[in-house]
Write a structure and sequence with these properties.
By secondary structure, the chain is mainly alpha-helical. It has a single domain, classed as ABC transporter involved in vitamin B12 uptake, BtuC. The protein is built from eleven helices and four strands. Strands 1-4 form a two-stranded antiparallel sheet. The chain has a two-stranded antiparallel sheet with strand order 2-3. Helix 1 crosses helix 9, helix 3 crosses helix 8 and helix 9 crosses helix 10. The N and C termini lie far apart (55 Å).
């Protein structure tokens, strides 16, 4: 039972990271009907910005951990928001009315460019970071331990999910986003600045990816220029599994994939965890093509 609970905690924290990245995929798809395949690299850049910010603060003599974490998070979200906005302006806006294959190829090109751009600037070697938040919360007389970083990851993810749900359902920006999702032309006729809403959607998704990138840096303590590819694929899988276009579905899909990986690695070995993840994805899509929380798309005639 103790081992089961340990893997459960590990899976939830890993799934929370996948879910944060998956929200960016599902928000973009919900509004423009396209997949932002450069989103994984935005997450990778967020992790690098957090690391560089921490090293810069250390060089300046700022060593108080709470202040350092806040500055790291703010810098990471700011820089990735700029990258997200730039990706939308360069890769998507000029091709918005083109065949859907064109922006897809453009996004893959941006993804490859960002990978090589970071590799040239930061080098191909992995970048380590010493533990910033050491210590664990022990349960069941020490048989189960939860690191403070993993606990913070789960709490922050729940808070961000609640905040985004409130933003989408209760604010004018959320109403404008839902209007663009339903009919961009009609939303524009009613005074909604569609270009601005789409750009803000990319910015919001990039900021969430930055949070995930910083959390991965703090949990695992090592990053490289290639971490965005696999995490992006897993997060996209989470968005599809939960129901592409559904924010709760993206988070649910992320948690499901995190749990599958944690339990499979813990009981069966880590070699086949990716095979197990994608096998379950295929089975879900065979019997429920819209995903766990997705709704069938109804076309107007």
């Amino acid at each position: 039972m103790e081992y089961f609970l340990q893997q459960l905690i590990n899976g939830i924290s890993l799934g929370a990271i996948y879910g944060l990245i998956a929200i960016g995929y599902t928000m973009v798809y919900g509004i423009i009907g396209m997949i932002n395949f450069a989103h994984g690299e935005i997450y990778m850049i967020g992790a690098f910005v957090a690391l560089i910010t921490f090293l810069a603060l250390g060089a300046l003599g700022i060593t108080w951990v709470p202040l350092a974490l806040v500055v790291m998070l703010a810098a990471s979200m700011l820089f990735t928001a700029v990258y997200g906005w730039t990706v939308e302006r360069i890769a998507y806006r000029p091709l918005r009315n083109s065949p859907k294959l064109a922006p897809l190829i453009s996004a893959i090109g941006i993804s490859i460019f960002l990978q090589n751009y970071v590799q040239i600037l930061q080098g191909a070697r992995s970048k380590p970071l010493q533990p910033i938040l050491p210590g664990n919360l022990t349960l069941m007389d020490g048989a189960v331990s939860v690191s403070y970083v993993r606990l913070a990851t789960i709490i922050i993810t729940v808070a961000l999910m609640y905040g985004f749900t409130q933003l989408i359902t209760r604010t004018s920006l959320g109403r404008a986003q839902r209007a663009c999702e339903q009919d961009k032309k009609m939303a524009a006729l009613l005074g909604v600045d569609v270009d601005r809403i789409i750009s803000l959607t990319f910015v919001m998704g990039a900021a969430l990816a930055a949070v995930a990138g910083m959390m991965v840096l703090l949990i695992y303590g090592v990053i490289d220029f290639y971490i965005g590819f696999l995490a992006g694929v897993k997060a996209f899988t989470a968005a599809v599994l939960g129901g592409i276009g559904s924010l709760p579905g993206a988070m649910l899909g992320g948690v499901v994939i995190g749990l599958i990986e944690a339990f499979w690695s813990g009981y069966m070995g880590s070699e086949w965890k990716d095979v197990a993840t994608f096998t379950i994805l295929v089975l879900v899509l065979i019997f429920r093509p819209t995903g766990l929380l997705g709704r069938p798309e109804i076309e107007k005639v």
